[in-house]
Design brief:
The structure holds three protein chains of three kinds. By secondary structure, chain A is mainly α. Chain A is about 70% helix and about 0% strand. In chain A, helix 2 packs across helix 3 and helix 2 packs antiparallel against helix 9. Chain A is extended and about 75 Å long. Chain C has a six-stranded parallel sheet, sandwiched between helices. In chain C, strands 3, 4, 6, 7 and 8 form a five-stranded antiparallel sheet that branches. Classes of the chains: A mainly alpha, B alpha/beta, C alpha/beta.
Chain lengths: ~270, ~300, ~475
Amino acid sequence: MKRTTYIMMAVVFGLFVLSWIYKGISLQSNNDHYILDGFLVTFSAFLTLAVLSFLYTDNPFYKFAEHLFVGVSAAFWMCLGFWTTIVQNLIPRLSEGVSGFFKVPYLPGPYNFFFFIPVILGIMLLMRLSPKGGWISRWPLAWIIGTTAGLNFIRYLRSDFIKQISSTFVPLLGGGQHEWQGIGHFFSNFDLSASGQFVALVANWVIFLGVFCGLVYFFFSKEHTGTFGRASRVGIWILMITFGASFGYTVMGRISLLVGRITFLFRDWLGLVS
Amino acid sequence: MADLGIIVSLVIIFGGLVALFVRSIQAREVDRRIIFLFIFIAVAAPILFPFTFSETATEVVKGVFDKIESLPEGSKVLISFDFDPAMAPEVQPMANAISRHSLEKGHKIIFMSLWATGQALLTHSLANYILPGFPEKQDGIDYVNIGYKAGNEGVLNVIITDFRKMFPTDVNSVLLDSIEVFNGVNSAKDVDLVIAIGGGKPGPKEWVLFIGDPGNIPIGFGVAAVVAPQLYPYYPAQVIGILGGVKGAAEYESELQKTHPRFRDMDTPGLRMMGPQTLAHVVILSFIVIGNVVFFRSRRREKKA
Amino acid sequence: MRYWCRIAPLLLLLFSVSPFAQTDAPELPDTASTDLAPPAPVSMLRAHDTDDDHGHSITLEWELSPDDGAGQNSVVTYEVFRWVPSVMDILDTLRSRLSIVNSEIREADGVTSEMKERRVSLQTRLKELLGQLPEIHEQYPNDGEWHQVGNVGSRNTRYVNSGSKDTESSGFIPDFTGFYYRVDAVTVDSSIRAVSKIVGPVQSYGQWFNTGRYPVLFAVLIFGFLTLGFVIKAKKGAKLYVRPLTGIEEVNDAIGRATEMGKPILYVLGLGTADMIATIASFTILGRVAKRVAEHRTRLIVPTYDPIVMSVAQEVVKSSYLDAGQADAYDDDIVFFVTQAQFAYVAAVNGIMLRELPATNVYMGKFYAESLILAETGALAGSIQIAGTDEIAQIPFFIVACDYTLIGEELYAASAYLGREPILLGSLKAQDYAKAAVITLALAGLVAANFGWTTFTDLFIVAN
């Protein structure tokens, strides 16, 4: 490694220790575990800054933080998978003795023997790791795909298909709580507020055109020419506006996360903000 | 001091933007790290020198608020914390606000989670943010935490018919039959309102597909901003309201403070975050404008050439 | 002295008449003890099994009491009562003893055979009694009493007495057992109430079919038959038209450009697993790209995220090279595994982009938060970028950073367009016809809703 790298690492290590001491002292007054908590806050801040340092350039601190995250999360999910799925969901239905060993409540039931089926399928799925026996894992995979498709088919048809069709039955004249009472009434009570009739009317027309033209855009059995093509163009415009709104929302979400992290750094670590 | 700080920050930011604009017009390259620095200052300055805006709840957010407000005292409300620490800065404020609102209205709350990380965040929230404001509320009588169960939407598939099959006990290993909150609650259909807070899978969409529509149960969402646009098609026919991102949280907190004076002094992270959020958005909008102006100028120049 | 003699009779008179001046305070009317008439009871009370459920539930309906919200004694609550035989006390005791035994077993360090025997004996006794419940309920009205099972507020005319199907639960309601119900109209003073007629015996039972879900059944049947029909038609060799997709058309030009520049083509399959539809669609497109690349003798780079995806992709690329007659040009290193960590994978692919400077980057499959990082780096490297994903949240990022993007379903259509497999083509056509049906129904429903023709719009209501 280059000399500058060594110096950099020494400086970072020194700052880490200083911060730990400072944090420990500041937490001492109202915390029994001030040394550990001081270390945890400092380490969290160090990892945050290490990841953010990637914005300047790739560096060993970023690599360390990333690898640590990958390793810890893999171990965390593995342990969690065992304790929540196998110990809490499977074992209480299979064996009273083993349930007692793991101190989880035994769940007796007349159909508990069915739970041996997922055990067998799970073992078959693990055969994926074997070069010769890998083909066996296709059967439980097929079971998973088939069951998921079957369970979800009805639900998606109901919630994402039929209910969405009925949601497009919007009043094109009037809207919201407003009944259409003629053009005279409409213009005499005209207002641009969000709860007004005009905005509700525009919203309903946008919904109607957006659904209709968006579906036309995704129609693949006909060339998009003529009136059909024009409707398709309106559809793609509406889609792009939607994607723009989605983009904006995502940017807002990412900024929120950044705000959360910087708040942690300034408040919990440096104590600059109460 | 705070005002001076924010004025200085604004001068630095807008002065920098002008310099950036001039540099771009002159077709000189701008290092992307400068842009990162701008965003950092735009976010850090309002945190160090806080300023907040007043918020008015939109109809979409008010849907959730009004429902909780209108339910009679003693109604059963199920709140699911389906998020991880990565999403927490956005959705934690709304989770806390909705929980406080429900407790204030005297509803019986069932807390649960479909995410393993959600349970830890739920326990932490209850102990540090929600219950300290309600010392009179008792576990098992006013609220209950039934925790996390693995199975994703499989859990929802079971609790729509029988809660106890999936959750025989709460997190303290007390049988649900012994818990007062669960009197008369055999399945999710016996609950008066479900609030799904999250943004991943399983999340709000699964709550609508497996619980809301089949069980005809009113559902409200509190979601991360990333997934909010995908969930708006469900409003208002299938969900009563959506709190999208920090803005949604801020609107809810604002409405809560207006309606219930006891919350005037409560911590409002949602409202607090809108300051840095707004300034960051203004900076990003400026970048977009600068980028587009430069793009169209260079295109016109090329056409002339 | 004379003074006192003069006033003495006066005083005497005063004191003598004063007792007669005292009168008792007039007796105030005792409002509390006024006899108020009870309100009128509910009428037309009927009870029936709750429709479209799995049983263990009875629905009661009635006409409002005339004193609901009006009248001398306004009704504020309706209390629902069910006749419960006295044996239910024994059942409750058995259940609570069973619950205690279960808690003891749970908390004990080791489960003894005595504990198990106790539990089995309690469960057996419980089961015996539960089996006798239908006969015991026939003893009505002897040996039982009325228990309140629920209440609803005023202006309500319906109550569902729904119970658990778990026999060990205190809320258990047995099926095929004759129940008797009554509904009391109750005022603010709960002692002033009106008792309705008693209805019963009424039995609960489960239904095999939920009639409220007919719309879903029709949708399943229609969509299923459409898919089956078109797949069979495609298998028989019928030409099913799919309109050309801009992004896919550009792939050929992009491959040509890469050949001219002598630069490689980078193909990223995304972060999905081999069972995801987006990844499966991407395999078909990869096969087409690999064939064109083999024909042009351009270099192809395919870094993968999942080991299974890697092995499938290797097979796809190999067979494409064989089809193009360039078997000797195929190299196993074309498709290689990188890592299963999301951002580590992205970092590796970014490194490839910046080192190899591919002429064309193709992103087809499942992408998450890394989509913008990939597309941005590709743009920095100066590559033509074509993307396609069904992740709605990532589509905006591909649209802004890539030259051509396949949005959502266009990715599936692209794989059908290129691969021409009967199943893919058939299901795509079925989806198109379903979309046409949606457009037609939506328009018809819109017109119906605006003219108040509820017969049509009610067809789309799915009960729970």
